[in-house]
Input
Amino acid sequence: MRETAILEIGQIPVADHWDKSLLEIAGEPVLQIFEKTGLNNVDGVFFGNMLSGAVNNQLHLGSYLGDWLGARHTEGIHVETACSSGASSFRQALMAVASGDIDTAIAVGAEKMTDAPAEEITAELASAADSEYERDMGVSFTAMNAMLMRRYMSEYGWRRENFANFSINAHANAVHNPCARFRSAITKETYLRAEMVNDPVSVMDAPPVVDGAAAVLIVPLDHVRGQLGVVRILGSGAATDNFALHSRKDPLWLSAVERSAKQAYRQAGLTPEDIDLFEAHDAFTIISALSLEACGFAERGKGPQLAEEGQISLIGRIPISTRGGLKARGHPVGATGLYQIVEAVQQLQGVCGKGQVPNAKIAMTQNIGGLGTNVITNIFSL
Amino acid sequence: MRETAILEIGQIPVADHWDKSLLEIAGEPVLQIFEKTGLNNVDGVFFGNMLSGAVNNQLHLGSYLGDWLGARHTEGIHVETACSSGASSFRQALMAVASGDIDTAIAVGAEKMTDAPAEEITAELASAADSEYERDMGVSFTAMNAMLMRRYMSEYGWRRENFANFSINAHANAVHNPCARFRSAITKETYLRAEMVNDPVSVMDAPPVVDGAAAVLIVPLDHVRGQLGVVRILGSGAATDNFALHSRKDPLWLSAVERSAKQAYRQAGLTPEDIDLFEAHDAFTIISALSLEACGFAERGKGPQLAEEGQISLIGRIPISTRGGLKARGHPVGATGLYQIVEAVQQLQGVCGKGQVPNAKIAMTQNIGGLGTNVITNIFSL
Output
């Protein structure tokens, strides 16, 4: 594989962007990149999005955005892997550059979730799960996470309050991120008193429905070696698990998370001990716990302990959700994977101010589609 | 780029598969490949599909199919570029293998169009066009092709009957393809008397709404060099044009077709003169004419002349639609790009019987999303 790097990043605040179209929010981070690099075209635009067909009556997003950008003749691809669509578009762009076929690839993730009523969004999000055996039975994603969390608590003896610090940490970090949806700290009391969605999952265990877009520019490392701020892509892994939760022999072990992380570690020549920060897919607090375990940061059944001990904070052993995570920065589904990568780049560049992880040399991102079903892990360094 | 090859192919007949789910039709061609190769897993499944979110309430198709296949932990990607989703999934699989990251990639295209009423399909297909300026104005894809055909006829002095041979040739070839939807020859009279959809586009200028699925297995050429029947991927190109028809300075020149073909020629080190057969995207007869011109097989404004002179037949200068094309084999949108590649492989392997192009050494395929908007061209040889 040809070595690759991220030359530039772009993002807009995660918010309710009722006044802008999908094209406008998706285009803005790319125009930021064009302005910073002086480019006005690229070889490929890889667009991660999940819900536009249903919410915006629009498919064919790669060409659609390429035209809006004025990126004449660019290759245009729309990649959809549910909530991991962002990281999947990044990975497809990465492969195209790594193959040597193209030299400049934009990976952009964008999602407009507030253009449809919340109940419609809930139904559409369930199309990431098995339509015949899960969605059509009325099992929402939050409900599946609730079943998983309850089983985990029962199996390992944790109580709901032991998950509080995942949410508290995310909100504390979001305060320092101008692009985060919720820039307000919360207390343990806020967490404990939060309204239930599907017991034991409360609104403080789950991400908000929001709009957002983020993008990166991928180029061959050889073209930019030595340039200030360039971030190297050290490793990338992708794996899948059984699609429906009921098909898994061991639902409390996210085997695709493990597999994808191990691929990324191997390619980077690193181990979990080398990772300085981890942008985890904290869509639900239970997923944070299970991901920390399957990635090798915690023993099985011990994920919440890292949160309880403060090891996930900016100065802890393995900082997660360092810019607010899915919980507090927000989870505009198809954009999330790109926000995570943008945030990892910012941490490695040391530009996060009060939200900075001290001495961050190696960053890992992980984006998950479905309930641990489709997992993409990437490792970066300056 | 690491050199790549197609090791094996699979397909099901294009038909109305009311008795099968999307998973069943998508899985069958892959199981054919598994059976022929002895494989039971692959590194990646790249699934091209356009309409499943709307028609089947199911997204996240790469993981979904990977699980159904028992392809434990495989990477799973869903690629959507409207009617070129099949070739786009092929190209993403190709890049992943060419990069050296993975060694076995299934590219599969599948579409169930008969699970929804025809008027719903017409509306959903329009989400490949600009939702605000075309779809929402009630302009269907057939209507846009009608405008294009009328303008072309007016500009270059062709009459409707001059397009007849595109349709007659496709049907004549489909007779010899057991997987084709319409295995019946038609006459010029059939063409001339055909019911109009949007004048001058009749049902004999347009493809049927159908179900279908096809797949190929891509591997590094070095792993299979010398094996019987292995087909080399010599060149691949992808390009886009202005998204909305009204934005194009010159609507009668498909510039993304030209660009994508030129990329493929350059990569393969070939010219149009070297191509022995061309699986064109003959969704509409006007698109056949325009594609032949933009690919360099006919001068501008002269596309129909190739049809009139019989140059597109199996024994002509540039055979097209050799297994029936989109018109008579059928156009299950997300699957079409893979059917074209499967057919090119069959021609190169010389297994097409009465439908064989004599002495076929170099084959080209071209899949188009939107009205010439997103174009992927590939060139193959034994």
Remarks:
- Chain B touches chain A through 61 residues (CB under 8 Å).
- The domain at 139-207+234-381 of chain B is CATH 3.40.47.10 (Peroxisomal Thiolase; Chain A, domain 1).
- The mean pLDDT of chain B is 97.
